[in-house]
Amino acid sequence: MCGLKPVIPRLSGATQVVAVSAAMRELLLRTARFAASDAPVAVMGETGTGKEVVARMLHLNSARSGGPFIAVNVAALPAELLETELFGHGKGAFTGAISARRGLFETAHEGTLFLDEIGEMPPALQAKLLRVLQDGELRRVGEDQAFAVDVRVVSATHRDLARRVAEGLFREDLYYRLKVLTLDVPPLRERVEDVLPLAEHFLLREKTHATQFSARARERLLAYAWPGNVRELENVVKHGAALAVGDQVDEPDLPDDLRCRRPGVTRLRGAPEASGPLATLAEIEREHILRVLDQCGGSQSEAARVLGIARNTLWRKLRSIRLSA
């Protein structure tokens, strides 16, 4: 497949990469080219699209494949713990540090370090990560002596990092250091050709008598928008396999989110059913902004955070709403 090894080893087994669509095949071709490089790679894409699988494929097909692949979710750890996890600590660095401990950078020496959800990294740690990327050296927490590490850093995020830079939440110099090479993983709704092959692949991994999908179930799978992407599809297949009573997963075995859709109609989860005249996009945006602002108790800063926009952007939108009222 595009010159790449298609089976990705994981701690709990192996992941077969399924790619039928032109979008995914283009991504794999790009991944194959990047595998020959040692430059940092930023893997961009929505939650659940398979960014870690792409990162593992990149590592497996690189000259570092014999070295470790270490993955850490930046958003899952508090700042003080994340620092010691990444960079290690010296003996006596803090209460309870009775001995020195290697960090993930050291553990990933001559391999790949995958930093998932890099957009959530606290500013203080962004500065320390930048120094490691620039100098190829790190210092453990509580130690003065620096030492060299040979690690390829692959980062991933579902955030718009350029926007976070503009909002002052992410360092611009680190942004360009991490984004030397970029892989954009397309959402599942933009590669519908992969839905059924992926579903069949997941079904074969389940311990069940069901080995295929009925025509009605296949229709539902293709009609859904998949806001949770490949991860959601895998969970839907688990649900169907658990309820299937024969050799097929049928429509009634699928979750309600899929079964309540009319065939051929794709609707994002949480979107209201159409009733009466259709609203314009501006009207929908106005209603949503005002609802979020109301639920945030009138706090514009909190509403901007929930909406995922800058506070000055929200202020301009509210000003426009008031002028048009």
What is the percent of helical residues? 40-55%
Rg, Cα atoms, Å? 23 Å
CATH class of the largest domain: Alpha Beta
How many independent structural domains?
A: 3
In what order do the strands lie side by side in the largest sheet? 4-5-8-3-9
Instruction: Count the beta strands.
Output: 11
Strand fraction equals 5-15%
Q: What characteristic shape results from the CA principal axes?
A: globular
Number of helices: 14
Question: Could you describe the 3D structure shown?
Answer:
With 325 residues, the protein is an alpha/beta fold. The protein has 3 domains: 7-186, P-loop containing nucleotide triphosphate hydrolases (Rossmann fold), CATH 3.40.50; 192-259, Helicase, Ruva Protein, domain 3 (Orthogonal Bundle); 281-324, Orthogonal Bundle (Arc Repressor Mutant, subunit A). It is built from 14 helices and 11 strands. A 5-stranded parallel β-sheet has the order 4-5-8-3-9. A two-stranded antiparallel sheet has the order 1-2. Strand 6 (137-138) and strand 7 (147-148) form a beta hairpin. The longest helix has 15 residues, at 229-243.
